[in-house]
């Protein structure tokens, strides 16, 4: 059976027998929303809240060992773990751009 076929079967069987397990994904979604709300501070005042971009970069870096180590322990195929790792790598790009722009803003503020 293909990997996605196994995932589909596992979700179907688990959802039928243990629907309460999906509650964990509800909390996962909530956590993502709360983190997104924190980044509104960077939108409002990027210089004062520039630490959020470092926080985001650390989170992106954490994706790599989690995907590679936990994915291996859970039997996730390597190609799927590579896809998971790409989220950490691609997520770092806009954060690095933000850090660059914040540095330019700070430089311009100091010049005044």
* Helix amount: over 70%
Measured by DSSP, the beta-strand proportion falls in under 5%
Largest sheet: none
* H and E order: HHHHH
The pLDDT mean sits at 94
Instruction: Find the count of extended strands (DSSP E, 2+ residues).
Output: 0
Structural class: mainly alpha
* Number of alpha- plus pi-helical segments: 5
Morphology call? elongated
The structural domain count equals 2
Question: How widely separated are the two ends?
Answer: 65 Å
Low-confidence segments: none
Radius of gyration: 19 Å
How would you describe what is shown here?
The protein is an all-alpha fold. It has helices spanning 3-17, 23-38, 40-44, 51-73, 78-111. Helix 4 runs antiparallel to helix 5. The protein starts with a helix and ends with a helix. The model has no long low-confidence stretch (mean pLDDT 94).
In short:
With 112 residues, the chain is mostly helical. The chain folds into two domains: 1-37; 39-112. It has helices spanning 3-17, 23-38, 40-44, 51-73, 78-111.
List keywords for this structure.
elongated; mainly alpha
Q: What is the topology?
A:
Elements: H1 3-17, H2 23-38, H3 40-44, H4 51-73, H5 78-111
Helix pairs in contact: 4-5
């Amino acid at each position: 059976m293909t990997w996605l076929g196994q995932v589909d079967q596992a979700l179907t069987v688990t959802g039928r027998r243990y629907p309460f397990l999906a509650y964990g994904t509800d909390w996962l979604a909530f956590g993502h929303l709360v983190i997104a709300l924190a980044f509104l501070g960077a939108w409002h005042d990027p210089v004062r809240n520039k630490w959020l971009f470092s926080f985001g970069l650390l989170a992106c870096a954490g994706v790599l060992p989690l995907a590679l180590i936990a994915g291996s322990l859970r039997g996730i195929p390597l190609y799927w773990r590579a896809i998971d790792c790409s989220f950490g790598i691609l997520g770092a790009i806009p954060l690095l751009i933000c850090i660059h722009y914040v540095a330019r803003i700070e430089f311009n503020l100091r010049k005044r």
